[in-house]
Structures are given as structure tokens and as C-alpha cells.
Structure prediction request, 275 residues.
Amino acid sequence: MIVVTGATGNIGRPLTRALVRAGEQVTAVSRHAAEVPDGVRHQVADLADPASLDLTGAKALFLLLSGDLHAVGANPAELVGRAAAHGVGRVVLLSSLGVRTRPFGTTRIAMRGLEDVLRESGVDWTVLRPGGFASNALWWAESVRAHRTVAAPFGDVGVPVVDPADIAEVAAACLLGDANGVLELTGPEVITPKEQTAAIAKALGEPVRFHELTRAEAKAGMEQLMPGELADDTLDILSSPTEAETQVSPDVRTVLGRAPRTFADWAERHVEAFR
Prediction:
């Protein structure tokens, strides 16, 4: 049985489906009650409280912490310890490219510490370090629906955003495989917010205007979804990505045997969110 945390999100949903297609028994974990595919067991757990995660009978664990890593009093290292104590043979951890490219931010230090705990845990492990997500464009969905406008900062600065579906497929391959190591996951090309706006417009078949936000305006909106420190970390990357943050990684192709999906492909598949 494979346990998938964050199972109702942009990565967890396609990952759960991929594992079911592979014939695996899956336990889908989320903070609240949720619908899951037929044949999938659902478990409600708050990862800020490691004892709430039941790993009985699990052979592998996909660990996606999201905001739980930053919760007051959270101890994500205990989750890894519980996995080892329950005989889980493999853990795939969703980390961040920023652990390598910006290692001294508070959130990056915390995640790197968790990676180190995993390395030393005695279980087989894989660390996935994606860059920016294509699905972050869903932050623009309401303004596109209401005003056919994308409002975002740093319109001409790009990074190679990755499709969460690709992250899910790589995670499935790692959970079902036997390779240890770190994988960096990006899309196939650098793309700016203005270019993403054009891709959404093409998928809609209608014009979409781009409105450039100031950094302060962008942070105010992001703080509704994440801690302020994490918002600042994200905005630092979006405003001035390092050379490493604009590089296209070969790891998606290496694992899946194909090129990463483009942002345009993501926009076409999610166009209903913008109508």
C-alpha cells in the first residue's frame, strides 16, 4: 500500500490516479474529508501533528508538506521517523529547487534539514525539487473570468515552470521504482507571465490583458495563501531568478522518457478555470 499526502491537490490527485492505474493499493491523505477515486482509501490527517498520520501497512510514502512545514510547533522530521518505524520502505519527498539555488532562506534551511533527515533515515528515498508550478496561474483565474485580465508582477521575467502532472508522473515512477537521489523538475522552456497570459488567451480564443502589479501589491495577495516569509522568497525568485533557476533540467525527460509538458498544454487542459 502506498500513502499519498496532499492527495487532493494539483500533484496528489494525478499521482493517486497514476498509482491506481499501476494496480497499487493507495491511501489518499488530506486535511479534510474529500472525494477520492474508487478503490482508494481516504484518511484525514493534519501533518502538523505527525501522530495523526496512520502508516500501518504502508510500503511507500509520498510526503508533501505544503504549509504544514511552516506551522507553529510543526515537526516534519517526526513524519520521516514514523515512516521508518512503521517499516515504510521508500519515501518520496516533495522539496523545492530553492534548496539548491537559495539555500540560506529560512524556509529553504528547514526543507534542507528535512532532506537530510530523510537521507539518514535508513529508508530508500527520492527528493523531488521542482521549480515554479504552471498551476500557480490559477491565482489569475478569477480576474481572467471577470475582467479578461491577468494581474501579476515582473511580467517580462521568466522561469521554466513545471506542470504538476509531470511532477505526479515522476513521483509515481519513483514510488514504484528503486532509485535514490535528488531530481530537479522544470518545464521545457523559460516562460514569462506575459507569455503565460498569451497562452491562456489562445486557449480561451479571446484576448486577455496583462496588468503588472508592484511587488507590494503581489505580496499582499500572496499572503492570503501563504506565510509572508514564503511570499517574499517566491517574489525574490520571480523578480530576479538566478542562472540556475532559469535552467531547464533534463530530469523529467530522463525519468519519463519524454519532454516535459509546456505551459500552453497546461493552459489548454485547464481552460475551463478561466472561462
